[in-house]
Amino acid sequence: LRQRYAAIRHMPSMTHDGQQVSLLLNAGLLIDLQHLDETGADGIGLYRTEIPFMVRSSYPDVATQTELYKKILDAADGRPVTFRTLDIGGDKTLPYFDAGEDENPAMGWRAIRIGLDRPLMLRQQLRAMILAAAGRELRVMFPMIATIAEFRAARALLDQELTRAEDRGEPLPDRVKVGAMLEVPSLMWQMPQLLARVDFLSVGSNDMMQFLFAWDRGSPRLSDRYDTLAPGALAFFDDLVRKARSASVPLTLCGEMAGRPLEAMALIGLGFRALSMSAGSIGPVKMMTRSLDVRQFRPLLDQTMHRPVETLRTVLRSYARDRGV
Ligand code: PEP
Ligand code: MG
Question: What is the similarity comment for this entry (predicted)?
């Protein structure tokens, strides 16, 4: 199997009927960047900036952060890199930052909520990203956005930092693309306003599923209880793809489900054209993608997506088997 994945490494990630699907990597440490060449991934769809913060014993200053982000962009060598601003709080703690304690940490003071309440921290991070991306494309996304006001406030901090860099005569990024992570269900009912303001959207399905099903993503007792392909989830994705497409806003999914071939198959069937996953998943998901005939598969999905998820899984598995995956 390893050999079969290696054999398709340099082949395009395209469905059998010619639909291009970007397969991207999730990364958090510099060492993860070596997987880009190893897997033939199209870029970094999610760079979790909190990971390098978590392995340090003190807060990294702007210069340290700039150097790190530069190395990441250098290693990506022109392939797109999407930096996710700090997602700390919840289960991700920093030894040098006291985020206090919440009764429900996943829904507590975390991610962009901390960033907006401690704007200096977020501004320093954005400053470092701007410096690192001088002369290149900068892609930034904000985690756990729940309201348009939060997205606007976060984007305003980025704009402030861009103006500051310009005023100081610093070389600027060539292009800046700003996106929101879709992890909180409330955003689904603010789509027209959101889509008008973002350059791209990325579904953080780990958190989105957690909040859609009220399903603690870390609880071992619940790990088998819900299914990310259940009718409620698929109807959500279907609706989202239509909305993003009608506004021509690029849409990615970067939670764990993107890296599971059957899940990826359903997502591509629904219309996703970019998925971000861990390195070990690129080969299996690419193999599935290349075997998939979306035009033929879509009616099958439409017939079964509202049936019990066991039925859908049986249909997906037998389709994959028939296509030799
Ligand atoms: C997610 O929630 O799906 C996601 C990609 O972010 P994280 O797993 O880092 O919370
Ligand atoms: Mg998340």
Answer: Belongs to the PEP-utilizing enzyme family.
Q: What digits encode the pLDDT tens for the residues 143-189?
A: 999 999 999 999 999 999 999 999 999 999 999 999 999 999 999 99
pLDDT by residue (tens digit) across 233-292? Answer: 999 999 999 999 999 999 999 999 999 999 999 999 999 999 999 999 999 999 999 999
| Residue 64 to residue 104: CA distance in whole angstroms | 33
Angle (nearest 5°) at CA 293 between 291 and 299:
135
With a 6 Å cutoff on the Cβ, whether 40 touches ligand 1 is no
Question: Whose CA is closest to atom 1 on ligand 1?
Answer: 204
Helices (H) and strands (E) in the chain, counts: 14, 8
Which residues, listed in sequence order, are joined to residue 133 by a DSSP beta bridge?
none
As for the ipTM of the complex, it is 0.99
206 lines ligand 1 (CB under 6 A): yes
- Residue holding tokens 């039925």? 311
**Contact indicator for 80, 44 with CB cutoff of 8 Å:** yes
Nearest-CA residue for atom 6 of ligand 1: 204
Cβ atoms of residues 86 and 125 within 8 Å:
yes
